[in-house]
């Protein structure tokens, strides 16, 4: 089965439950994404009021996580979901943990922006050092949430592969900051802040990759954590149905 | 076909091979091939009229009573390679070795002990001490002994529904069958009695092979080791229960177990 459908239950309220749950996750993801974007913007512009706003909104993401968790509990208890429905609910429970962590990272970056608005005065190119990493991680997060919305396992593999680039970019930022600190000890404070920001962005990439892995699980029923992406890609090229059953047998018409 | 059988259990207790069944001209089963794993629970699920009860009843030749019914294919009981639906198999002998428990508890209007001893008497076992010991063992096996040991000679009809069903299980157990067939054994019982029967089935499979038809999907998921999904007289998918209920291979199975049949 390449496609997971959410609707079509005999119990239409079950459809509504699952659909509501899914849109709540997307809403939560959108909020975390905008938090991260604004935190980076605040940092780039040295805008402390925007940073303060990001810090104050963090609780919303947390509240959404709690609400969605409750809803998942309720669905598990009352509907006893099976197969793709079960995988959807399990994947959601995991996904929201990662989204909440993205919110935490945005909060961390905003805090740095709030307390050290003059980053650009310190280490070398200042914010420009992490600008690329920031853009990349935002893009990857956006991609992961998009893949979740479309339940597209193939796109999920492609997105997950991009996390490697982020890790490499993070290493580059690290080396750059070390150079700044060696050249001019007065930049140490600012360089450490930059490192914290870069670290947070690298973590966002990891969370985005996790979300992609949950999508692969949700669609194909295969847990791909701790599996190399090349292997996952190979297994996706074989249709799941052909791997398990004979295609010559006719499926009954429902 | 061989690929599909790759995940079948090795050394099954019984093996249905291309079983078709006709009620007169009406074909109720179409080429059903399915293993029944030894000392495991195999559950048959599917919407009403899909042929799961018809299939179950083939195993102890319950269809023989109506003229015009016809079996095709084979159901081989191992290790002696006896074809249960072949001409050579004696239905009475088959039923001695394959017990059956029905949806509604159906004890005989006699005492509790007599109900259980019935199968032994059919076999001509009359020696009192032997009958008593076997009755006790069967009642212990059916987790009913503690509740009825002081009133073995009272009427079985005074028992509760759940107790009656366990009595029927004891009655099936007394002849030490190799395979027990359950046809929706808990659909007339309350949740507690249901839980007791499910618990009992889980213990039974240490000694006996179990084939069960159930409408309760969660029950199939809880108690079965292997699950077969049938639809319109055909077997759609057979696999380990954990696989069927988390990641079935066929869309029709997925639709049925997730509740998408209109």
Largest sheet of chain B: 6 strands, mixed
**Termini separation of chain A (Å)?**
16 Å
As residue ranges, the low-confidence spans of chain A are: 239-254
User: In the residues of chain A, how many domains can be counted?
Assistant: 1
What structural category characterises the helix and strand content of chain A?
mainly alpha
Instruction: Count the DSSP helices of chain B.
Output: 10
The total tally of domains of chain B equals 1
N-to-C span of chain B: 30 Å
What does this molecule look like?
The complex is a heterodimer of chains A (254) and B (262). Chain A starts with 11 loop residues before the first helix and ends in a 10-residue tail after the last helix. Chain A has nine helices and no strands. The longest helix of chain A has 34 residues. Chain A has a single domain, classed as Methane Monooxygenase Hydroxylase, Chain G, domain 1 (Up-down Bundle). Chain A is mainly alpha-helical. Chain B has a single domain, classed as P-loop containing nucleotide triphosphate hydrolases (Rossmann fold), CATH 3.40.50. In chain B, helix 3 runs parallel beside helix 6, helix 4 packs across helix 6 and helix 6 runs parallel beside helix 7. Chain B is globular, with a radius of gyration of 18 Å. Chain B starts with 11 loop residues before the first strand and ends in a 5-residue tail after the last helix. The mean pLDDT of chain B is 92. Chains A and B meet through helix 3 and helix 9 of A and helix 8, strand 10 and helix 10 of B.
Brief description of this entry?
The complex is a heterodimer of chains A (254) and B (262). Helix content of chain A is 78%, strand content 0%. Chain A has helices spanning 12-45, 48-79, 83-115, 128-150, 153-161, 163-183, 188-220, 229-237, 240-244.
